[in-house]
Amino acid sequence: MGDNMIRKFEVENFKNFRDKFTLDLTKTKNYEFNEDAIQNNIINKALIYGRNGVGKTNLGLAIFDITLVLDDKPRLPLRFYDDYMNAEGKKDYVEFRYEFQFNEDIVEYYYKKKDIDELIYEELIVNGEQVIVFNFETMFKEINIKSAKTLNFEFKDNNLSVVKYIVNNSNLDKNDPIIKLVEFVKNMLWFQSFQDNRNMGLKAGDEVFSSTINKLELLNDFELFLNDFGLEVNLSFIDSDNKKLLAFNYGNKKINFFKNASSGTRDLAWFYYWFIGFSNTSFLYIDEFDAYFHYELALNVVKVLSKFSNMQTILTSHNTSLITNKELRPDCYFILSKSNLTNLPNATQKELREAHNLEKMFRSGEFEF
Q1: Is the pTM for the entire model greater than 0.85?
Q2: Which of 6, 142, 271, 290 is the most exposed place for a label (fewest CB within 10 A)?
Q3: Are 26 and 7 in contact (CB under 8 A)?
Q4: Quick one: pLDDT at residue 202?
Q5: Which ranges in the chain belong to alpha helices (H)?
């Protein structure tokens, strides 16, 4: 999926985003270091810095609204979408606009919603040509897809996306950009905290983690993973109610892993749990990813994620120490305010270089946002 990415995202009148708000991942520079963070001139690994309350969580929720439209199962608890519309907005609907690149194809997907589950308009454009237009209020439609010509669109169900309806009921080629759009969305993954497991509706507890490690025979691999992050541990299993639970092994004594691990170690464990499945993930958004990590551990997480070129990743943080050229580069760092989002090169008149101390420049007020 390395050639399948989000290029640009816009939202308006959603939660704290009253006016049009844009995330543009095509604003890259010609830096000759950490080049793996860019794929096909699109930012593939990004870190968004923002103080508490500016909307880092809401930005993730906005981006993942598309999973509520095109996927069959909720990616996030629906309670996260309470107070859906901006309280001060001038419009009585929310607008979402996505621009994707799937290999050589550019797909633009635009829709309006009255509420979390009430679509009122959908539009799909492929390589500049309008493919789908559907107005749920007037029932006006224009469908330029041959295999969809015989479909009955008089279903009048505002809970059902026309794009999803066509994908589910017509014989599209597997390489069709519309199919790729839906597959991309189905493989998007969002976290607020790894150990909170607020993602995809899955309820993954300590027993689930232990069972997975045991079933897939990953105990040694998980131990090495923690060692690589500077945690020198010896792991084993203990029996509890006919179940095997992960444990710290101290020779003559074994103690429950999750009951005794620190918050950071537990979060790292859940990072590993999802890490083993990242090969199928198209887009990863981790809100406040370093909440339980110290500086070096957080940088190691960025380093590990950078190895997944197939997976576009956005991390958020309010820790300025992570704004560094060690793992990423200036055009991969975005500063979020309540009304704007800009990456570092566009927030200063100075030409940024690899040798610059980005955090020091940030703290000295070099970047305007």
Answers
A1: yes
A2: 142
A3: yes
A4: 36
A5: 56-63, 65-70, 162-169, 177-186, 206-215, 219-228, 257-260, 263-275, 295-306, 358-363
- For residue 320, CA distances in Å to 56, 346, 355 come to 15, 18, 17
CB contact at 8 A, 42 and 35: no
pLDDT tens-place string over residues 279-322? 889 999 988 888 768 788 888 888 889 888 889 999 999 888 89
State residue 113 phi and psi, 5-degree precision.
-135, 145
Reported as half-sphere exposure (CB side, CA atoms, 13 A), residue 6 has a value of 28
Please choose, from the candidates 217, 228, 188, the residue with its C-alpha nearest in 3D space to the C-alpha of residue 64.
188
Closest CA to 23 of 57, 65, 60, 71: 60
CA distances to 133, 137, 162, 347 from 143, in Å: 6, 16, 10, 42
Residues 49 and 359: beta-carbon distance below 8 Å? no
How, if at all, do strands 21-24 and 4-12 pair?
antiparallel
Lowest mean pLDDT: which of 112-116, 156-160, 219-223? Answer: 156-160
Residue with the two structure tokens 């541990």: 233
Rounded mean pLDDT of 151-160?
A: 72
The pLDDT-based confidence of 241 (bands split at 50, 70, 90) is confident
Residue type, 8: K
Residue 38 has pLDDT above 90, yes or no: yes
CA distances for 222 relative to 111, 199, 299, angstroms: 42, 22, 19
For residues 324 and 358, the answer to whether their CB atoms sit within 8 Å is yes
Single out the residue of 65, 45, 25 nearest to residue 322, CA to CA. Answer: 45
Number of alpha carbons in the 13 Å side-chain half-sphere of residue 311: 25
| Collapsed DSSP state (helix, strand, coil) of residue 17 | strand
Asked if 94 and 19 count as a contact pair (C-beta separation under 8 A), the reply is: no
